[in-house]
Amino acid sequence: MDTTITINKDNLPQHIAIIMDGNGRWAKKQGMLRAFGHENGVKSVREIVTACTKLNIGFLTLYAFSTENWNRPKLEVDALMSILMNSLKKELPTMQKNNIKLSTIGNANMLPARARKQLFDVIEQTKTNTGMVLTLALSYGSREELIQAVKQIAEKVKHNQLNTADINESVIQEHLYTKDMPDADLVIRTSGEQRISNFLLWQAAYAELYFTEVLWPDFTENDLHMAIASYQKRERRFGKTSEQIK
């Protein structure tokens, strides 16, 4: 950790969400295939998960594979699914050691059967862990998530299980993939892109956004600390005035 970066341990984000971007560009810079970047991106995942565990961050959500990513070349998608399976198997002992509970959000039915089985096997084996909740957003798209929530609520109204007048933020929250976790406090995106790409549109309504030029395979614990330090310099008002917050 860079000693010039001071973090207030009493003002940490409860939920950090990361858009892990730049694996392909990183590989291209090395003159390698995109899969090489994804493989090296796993090292950053390991480092950031460990760093968040040390800071006692409650929730870490990683945007690993979007619904739009299925449109990428088959070779790259297959490589990503293979990396996912191998990583889950390899990292399980570390998750158990660090008391990490694995979770997932997204349309898991879209995943190949073997990848889906490996994912849910690890989720099952870590379900009683009480430390940080590590959530992998896989085959995830926030608009699709909201559509599914609307459909479920509409069915309840249709069958007189819910009155239209009673639909509020809490009701919508209960029908999202993320119903068991708090909203994101800090959303980080690597690689210099400055957009959220259909990620946690509802849950990031009041999140602090942090963009960095660093490509994901180069993103380190020190970079995480820089993002948290930036977060801590901001005044989170949630629609109120500075005077009201104070």
CATH class: Alpha Beta
Give the overall average pLDDT: 94
Straight-line distance between termini:
32 Å
Helical stretch tally: 8
Proportion of β residues?
5-15%
Helix content: 40-55%
Report on the architecture of this protein.
- This protein has 246 residues and is of the alpha/beta class.
- It has a single domain (15-141, 183-233), classed as Decaprenyl diphosphate synthase-like (Undecaprenyl pyrophosphate synthetase).
- Helices cover 42% and strands 14% of the residues.
- It is built from eight helices and six strands, in the order βααβαβαβααββαα.
- It has a six-stranded parallel β-sheet, sandwiched between helices.
- α4 links the parallel β3 and β4 (133-140).
- The longest helix is centred in the middle third of the chain and has 24 residues, at 74-97.
- The radius of gyration is 19 Å and the shape is globular.
- The model has no long low-confidence stretch (mean pLDDT 94).
List the helices and strands and how they pair.
Elements: E1 15-19, H1 23-29, H2 34-54, E2 59-66, H3 74-97, E3 101-105, H4 113-125, E4 133-140, H5 142-158, H6 169-174, E5 186-189, E6 208-211, H7 221-232, H8 242-245
Parallel strand pairs: 1-2, 1-5, 2-4, 3-4, 5-6
Helix pairs in contact: 1-2, 2-3, 3-4
Highlighted features:
6 strands; 246 residues; Undecaprenyl pyrophosphate synthetase; alpha/beta
Could you give a quick summary of the protein structure above?
With 246 residues, the chain is of the alpha/beta class.
